[in-house]
Specification:
six-stranded parallel β-sheet; Rossmann fold; 454 residues; alpha/beta; 15 helices
Length: 454
């Protein structure tokens, strides 16, 4: 598979990094020499110096032979021009674009139906608001993914010392929780991601990823001493594009929201666009202001300014002031491990949200969705098993599945199955597969060759 990536920024770099490890033919186009140098020095990919909208640069990158064009620069206009030129030069190339400006929201369908005939439009701001919404709805969750239209949840949660599963071997869990089913797919311990086996113990401080049917999620969370609390009042620090999108979503859910924004000009815009939210002009990191606005009485505080250091410091401050739930937006991937170390468990990143959306459209086979776990170390992939597959009709324990990968869930019609060794995949089942990074190419080959008609 050949993929041309327009844009060597954080999204372009990390997508290229992921695909290069999987031995795909990747070419990156950018006019920033420093960004190109970072790519060429760190990754085994080709680079082209030029504008992504230039036909000469696209020609040099081999767009005519490319299976996919990814337009992910920081400029919506450059991304659109790159897709338009690719559409003229190679109609068979699948085009994926990142469009961030809300002005384009109403034109998504037109851009897909007409020139430049874009196959997939991804707005990372919409995706990150969805991520925030999921984190708000699952108490204590560090990470939440959804499959099968939300019927299956993939949840990451910190194991506390006083929970009944602390110090318990996986094989002994059924005897403790009874008939309730739970599949623990992965554990992050001391920054290392592992797939636990039956004799492995769960330890306090572990970040545990488990699969749960939506209807059983709250009961499963009770096992970890996490209980649902309705969200009635929210505070948003930062009234930028993500902040205003989140405020509109909260209004639809009848959640009372306050927005703190420093810019008077931006406050005027917010006041005009938001009917229900309370707009306050002030510094969200001002302790006096936060106390005056009863930050400890908020059910959740979300820090969404354009400055991640401000977001981090504000999150620490509001947590110290008594806010029970804090969600922090950061930009740098390298900050993720640090956030957990300083007690900030719920973190969102617009670029990571974009990457997750892009991955499902790059994967071969009948892939419906893909979610990154712990940066780039693993993925959870949802795919359809067709009748031609060799994994259909056999007990899972007899399948030759790649090391570092496991079938975490089987969805058959309306039925959600937490698989065991004797479970059998049937044609048209949806399968959710957890795969470590080094196992992804093998899983992808199975999905491409065995799960899909040609």
């Amino acid at each position: 598979m050949k993929i041309v990536i327009v844009g060597a920024g954080e999204v372009g770099y990390h997508i290229a990094s992921r695909l290069a490890v999987e031995n795909k033919d990747v070419v990156v186009i950018d006019r920033n020499p420093d960004a190109l140098r970072r790519v060429s020095d760190s990754l085994d990919v080709q680079v082209v110096d030029g504008s992504g909208g230039s036909p000469l640069a696209l020609e040099a990158a081999g767009v005519r032979e490319a299976d996919i064009l990814l337009a992910v620069t920081d400029s919506d206009e450059t991304n659109l021009l790159a897709c338009l030129m690719a559409d003229i030069m190679s109609r068979s190339t699948k085009k994926l674009i990142r469009l961030r400006d809300a002005d384009y929201d109403r034109y998504h369908e037109a851009l897909q139906a007409k020139a430049p005939h874009i196959d997939t439009i991804i707005n990372p701001e919409i995706e990150v608001v969805r991520t925030i919404d999921r984190l708000m709805s699952v108490p204590g969750a560090v990470d939440v993914g959804e499959f099968a239209e939300g019927r299956v949840k993939f949840v990451g949660i910190q194991l506390e010392e006083n929970t009944r599963l602390a110090g318990i071997r996986l094989m002994d869990i059924p005897g403790i929780i009874g008939e309730q089913q739970i599949l623990i797919a992965a554990v992050v311990r001391n920054e290392k991601l592992i797939i636990p086996r039956g004799k492995d113990k769960l330890l306090p401080g572990d970040l545990i990823y488990f699969i749960s049917e939506e209807g059983m999620l709250m009961e499963t969370l009770k096992i970890f001493n996490k209980r649902a609390k309705a969200i009635h009042h929210a505070m948003i620090v930062g009234g930028g594009r993500v902040g205003i999108r989140l405020a509109k979503l909260l209004a639809k859910k009848n959640i009372h929201a306050k927005i703190l924004e420093k810019s008077e000009k931006r406050c005027d815009i917010l006041a005009q666009e938001l009917d229900k939210a309370v707009v306050l002009c002030g510094d969200g990191s001002d302790q006096v202001l936060l106390e005056e606005e009863n930050v400890k009485g908020m059910d959740v505080v979300v820090t969404l300014t354009d400055d991640e250091e401000t977001n981090i410091l504000t999150s620490l401050l509001v947590k110290r002031l008594g806010a029970p739930k804090v969600i922090t937006k950061i930009r740098k991937f390298s900050y993720f491990p640090l956030m957990l170390a300083i007690g900030m468990e719920q973190v969102v990143n617009t670029r990571l949200s974009a990457i997750n959306s892009i991955l499902q459209h790059i994967r071969k086979g009948k892939v419906l969705s893909a979610i990154s776990i712990k940066g780039e170390e693993a993925e959870v992939i949802e795919a359809v098993a067709l009748e031609t597959s060799e994994i259909v009709g056999k007990p899972l324990q007899k399948l030759s599945f790649p090391k570092g990968a496991l079938v975490a869930c089987i969805i058959r019609g309306e039925k959600v199955i937490i698989p065991k060794g004797d479970s059998v995949i049937e044609p048209d089942d949806r399968v959710i597969i957890f795969a470590m990074r080094n196992a992804i190419p093998k899983v992808e080959r199975i999905l491409a060759v065995k799960l899909e008609y040609f």
